[in-house]
Amino acid sequence: MNREQPVTSTVGHLIDGKIVSDAARTQPIFNPATGQINGHVALASKATVEQAIASAERAFPEWRNTPPLKRARVMSRLKTLLEENADQIAQLITAEHGKVLNDAQGELQRGIENVEYASYAPELLKGEHSRNAGPGIDSWAEHQALGVTAGITPFNFPAMVPLWMWPMAVACGNTFVLKPSERDPSSALFIAELALQAGLPPGVLNVVNGDKEAVDTLLHDTRVKAVSFVGSTPIAEYIYSEGCKAGKRVQALGGAKNHAVVMPDADVANAVTAMMGAAYGSCGERCMAVPLIVCVGDEVADKMLAGLKTEIAKMKVGPGTDNSNDMGPLVTKPHFEKVKGYVDQGVAEGAELLIDGRGLKVPGHEDGYFLGPCLFDHVKPGMRIYQEEIFGPVLGIVRVKTLDEGMKLINDHEYGNGTCIFTRDGEAARYFTDHIQVGMVGVNVPLPVPVAYHSFGGWKRSLFGDLHAYGPDAVRFYTKRKTITQRWPSAGVREGAMFSFPSSR
Ligand code: NAD
Fold this sequence. Notes:
Aldehyde Dehydrogenase, Chain A, domain 2, methylmalonate-semialdehyde dehydrogenase (acylating, NAD) activity, binds nicotinamide-adenine-dinucleotide, Ald_DH_C, Ald_DH/histidinol_DH, seven-stranded mixed β-sheet, globular, 16 helices
């Protein structure tokens, strides 16, 4: 399969185990490496989304009563199918998102680890039990499924982020309606078809492609009990407030502006190579990407810049289908224009542009959305390139005098998704991890993305809601706790009427 060739079909929806389409409204899907239309995606109407919700509602009673071990076995089979189809999934991701194939494989692998975690469902759902909570009284807590749940996902991890959500939701006994990003919808739909092959009954997972109309239907329909969202902060805030108003449980993960602190005692060579991947990997289109390096002291800033300039000069930018490239194109033309606009803005605001990727041309791919790596020095708080999420290959150096000054910048920033510190000083690292107001923190680890058996989430305006995504928090999010207290009266424990509150006194 050569996915650089245009595909003419329309990507539809998966409802009740069948692929269906909405012919009335469609939108083109572009190949970011060529600027050509790759195909179209159907945009679900309210009525189509309601069909998907109805299908999920019908499937719920039987799925809820399916033993967790049987649900888990579906996840184990899905893991095998995902591994067997990894090359094809990576090609679908690269064709629509643009990221380099190896990086697409990496994203899929992290998604597979969530499926693997979901296959531990029987263990995770065991609950808690107390014998003799009172005389002859046993008490236990169960995690009961919610019903129909929904997920709305962003373009930047089209396979992984859906896999953060629905495998745990369905392993916990819920049914699910997924609304992937309309910019790169094919991999999520393909994976949902694999789930059917793995034995997931029709209706347990439905996929609707679409835009605001589909999202608003999911948000307002009272049959949907919980919504997981990952995307930009303004939309996350909207999803959270609308979903909560409609009485739903909502977790809405938003945008980011992650800072890395480099201390004067850091291993600079290691920090430079770590920052190259963190800033420019996936063209900076990662919510855990690091677009700002806070250097403590001018000496370390100058050393970092020298190292970064050398490494950037070696970078290869080109189509993601060629694994020898380090970076592919940005996702769409409007996004390319937006990121380029931020570089213009940074120059206008007085930051010093040391490396300018705006003129990059990739031979044979002149219409692709390629922007070369950009590097700024003297980025300062208050500049738009400091405050706002750029989501592109634009790295800025911020110079501070002390660790406390750097930490204050991070703590004052509206986002709090990820951060890291590069140092050889254990005391500084411990102080940093203890006091920094950010949800995911690395020590000499640039992208501290929690593994599948921990949970993922930022603080401040990077997450609206209480529970983080996947891992142990997903069990809490996708289940309701029910606590049962039971006694079987017998001659020994039979009591008369009691009017004072029972206690263990
Ligand atoms: P986005 O907010 O534009 O879109 C996300 C989803 O919301 C899509 O499915 C889209 O169809 C839907 N949507 C968009 N506009 C809407 C509207 N007005 N009403 C209702 N629904 C709407 O985000 P994106 O550009 O696809 O993804 C990039 C963003 O996601 C970045 O801000 C990035 O930081 C963030 N992100 C965050 C995390 C995290 O874990 N915190 C992970 C990945 C991406």
